[in-house]
UniProtKB/TrEMBL annotation:
<comment type="similarity">
    <text>Belongs to the universal ribosomal protein uL30 family.</text>
</comment>
<feature type="domain" description="Large ribosomal subunit protein uL30-like ferredoxin-like fold">
    <location>
        <begin position="4"/>
        <end position="54"/>
    </location>
</feature>
<keyword id="KW-0687">Ribonucleoprotein</keyword>
<dbReference type="GO" id="GO:0006412">
    <property type="term" value="P:translation"/>
</dbReference>
<comment type="subunit">
    <text>Part of the 50S ribosomal subunit.</text>
</comment>
<protein>
    <recommendedName>
        <fullName>Large ribosomal subunit protein uL30</fullName>
    </recommendedName>
</protein>
<keyword id="KW-0689">Ribosomal protein</keyword>
<dbReference type="GO" id="GO:0015934">
    <property type="term" value="C:large ribosomal subunit"/>
</dbReference>
<dbReference type="InterPro" id="IPR005996">
    <property type="entry name" value="Ribosomal_uL30_bac-type"/>
</dbReference>
<dbReference type="InterPro" id="IPR036919">
    <property type="entry name" value="Ribo_uL30_ferredoxin-like_sf"/>
</dbReference>
<dbReference type="GO" id="GO:0003735">
    <property type="term" value="F:structural constituent of ribosome"/>
</dbReference>
<dbReference type="InterPro" id="IPR016082">
    <property type="entry name" value="Ribosomal_uL30_ferredoxin-like"/>
</dbReference>
<dbReference type="Pfam" id="PF00327">
    <property type="entry name" value="Ribosomal_L30"/>
</dbReference>
Length: 61
């Protein structure tokens, strides 16, 4: 299964509460923190909502 690495590049402070919640639920805390998540529809949907705050990389298994 494919995986993606999500890195928080901009602060979630002063954003909409729903966007801050998504950042927290993805496991991102501070700027430059990264997590590896499965590449599925749910993860892609969450990333779409905060695409202006994160960078995404494909990770090889």
């Amino acid at each position: 299964m494919a995986k993606i690495k999500i890195t928080l590049t901009h602060s979630a402070a002063h954003r909409l509460p729903a966007q801050r919640k998504i950042v927290k639920e993805l496991g991102l805390g501070r700027i430059n923190s990264s997590v590896v998540k499965p590449d599925n529809a749910a993860t892609r949907g969450a990333i779409f909502k905060i695409s202006h705050l994160v960078e995404i990389e494909e990770v090889q298994d």
